[in-house]
Amino acid sequence: MLRNPQYICDIKKQEEELLVQLMQYHEFNSESNGFTNFLIGFFIIKVEENRETRLHKQWEHTPTVVSLDHKRRREVNYRGCLAAGRYIIVPTTFRPGDKAH
C-alpha cells in the first residue's frame, strides 16, 4: 500500500471539512464489450507536520484516520472533518498489483 502514490494534504484550521474524490479512467474492455472498473479506495493517514518525504512504514504515531472501502465504481468520495495537521492520502486497488489510472 505505501508503494502507491501519496498526496500530502495540510489542514490549517481545527475541524476543517475535507472532500476527496478518487476517479479512475474508463477503460473499454473488448473481451467483455464493456468498461472495466477496478475495486478502488483510499486511506488517509495523519503524519508529522514537518514530514516532507513519502511514508515508507506506518508507525504508531501515524494513525489511519480514514479508510474508504474498496468499491467497483468509476469514482469514490469522502467528505468529512479532520483536525488540523498534515495528512497523506494513499489511493489503493483491492488486489495488489492492479494498476488503475
From TrEMBL:
Residues 2-100 form the Peptidase C2 calpain large subunit domain. It comes from the Eukaryota. It comes from Homalodisca liturata. InterPro entries: Calpain_domain_III, Calpain_III_sf. Gene3D superfamilies: 2.60.120.380. This is Peptidase C2 calpain large subunit domain-containing protein. Pfam families: Calpain_III.
